[in-house]
Design brief:
It is a single chain. The protein is mainly alpha-helical. It is built from 17 helices and 7 strands. The strands form 3 sheets. The protein has a 3-stranded antiparallel beta sheet. A two-stranded antiparallel sheet has the order 2-5. The structure holds calcium ion (CA) (2 copies). One calcium ion binds next to strand 7.
């Protein structure tokens, strides 16, 4: 499924990445974060080991895994539970008062590592590393940084801004000029593949609720990753602001880009059919349901397997209490830091 391996291994093997590759990787990470944060989910243990790449090429698709420490948050309240990994943890998480911007910090540390091959805050022990994180001082001087562009350094600075209130959000980071510069080419080449998908979208009729439910389930659980791959690129191309959802406007622009114009009423109709949960936007699964041809999704094998799995979920077989992460062989929750009350140390900038 992800034969390219961990992002971390890639960096270690190759000693950093080109800016173009780092830009494409970072855009996908930020896009996933923007989607999570908009849905009030914070990851809290973002690091290269939790980012998988599906193949060893420049246009790899990136997946964030291990949501074991993720939490649904109240946007009006600060979170207090300390959770993370020393190199990547945000200073405000060590101080036990934070919000979703802590993920942006961790992504900023990753961007730093991707660009130069070593972390911005280090030390001989976990305590020492976290003391340096708390100080928040890092440098972008040295051989590795000499070849890094000014724009890339600017984005690192915005993501590693000490005060979370002044730190850029995932959504804002997606609009950063450095991200735009390094992802423009891939968007262009994917546009050619948009047309068949848009044709399917136009023809899509949701059908009965049972059919919708079955298709949604089969698409998310059973359809081969390879089949989804191209469509994922199309989705990313249409998703101009990178928030992981297609708005009516983005879909309209997609059609206009291909057909040079589109009847608004027709688009409204298509949009309503595709937006199965009536959330006002098209998420990735809804897009897949609408663009994968029905023949591919609703074949006998898939229907039988879906029935078997749903039956299992309903409790007709035991073993239904395992979580998705339990089944992921690459999860290494042991590496994550969950600090106990006694090891908490207050620290502040400059201390
Ligand atoms: Ca969007
Ligand atoms: Ca929707």
């Amino acid at each position: 499924m992800c034969e390219g391996g961990e992002l971390f291994e890639r960096v270690v093997d190759k000693g950093g990445m080109t800016e173009a590759t780092a830009g494409r990787v970072m855009k996908q990470i930020l896009s996933a974060l923007a989607y999570c944060h908009a849905n009030n989910v914070v990851h809290r243990d973002l690091k290269p080991e939790n980012v998988l790449m599906d193949k060893d090429e420049g246009d790899a698709t990136v997946k964030i895994i291990d949501f074991g420490t993720a939490q649904i948050f109240d946007p009006h309240q600060q979170m207090t539970a300390k959770s993370g990994t020393p190199y990547y943890i945000a200073p405000e998480v060590i101080k036990c008062s934070y919000n979703s911007k802590c993920d942006v910090w961790s992504a900023g540390v990753m961007l730093y590592v991707l660009l130069c091959g070593y972390p911005p805050f280090s030390g001989k022990t976990d305590q020492e590393i976290m003391a340096n994180v708390c100080k928040g001082k890092y440098s972008m001087i040295g051989d590795a940084w000499e070849v890094v562009s000014k724009e890339a350094k600017e984005l690192v600075k915005k993501m590693l801004t000490y005060d979370p209130a002044k730190r850029i959000s995932a959504m804002e980071a997606l609009k950063d000029p450095w991200i735009a510069k390094n992802t423009a080419h891939s968007a262009g080449s994917a546009m050619a593949k948009v047309m068949p998908a848009l044709d399917n979208l136009k023809k899509f009729h949701a059908g009965t609720m049972l059919k919708q439910a079955a298709m949604t389930y089969i698409v998310s659980q059973l359809v081969d990753e390879k089949e989804k791959k191209e469509l994922q690129k199309v989705f990313q191309t249409l998703d101009k602001n990178g928030d992981g959802k297609l708005s009516k406007q983005e879909l309209l622009e997609g059609y206009e880009g291909i057909y040079g114009g589109f009847i608004r009423s027709e688009l409204e109709k298509a949009f309503d059919a595709i937006d199965i949960d009536k959330s006002g936007s098209i998420d990735y699964n809804e897009f897949l349901v609408a663009t994968l041809s029905e023949k591919k999704v609703l074949n006998e094998n898939n229907i039988r397997e879906a029935f078997r799995l749903m039956d299992k979920v309903a409790g007709h077989e035991s073993n239904n209490n395992r979580t998705t992460t339990d089944r992921l062989p690459w999860t290494r929750s042991g590496r994550c830091w969950r600090l106990t009350r006694t090891s908490r140390k207050r620290c502040s900038k400059g201390s």
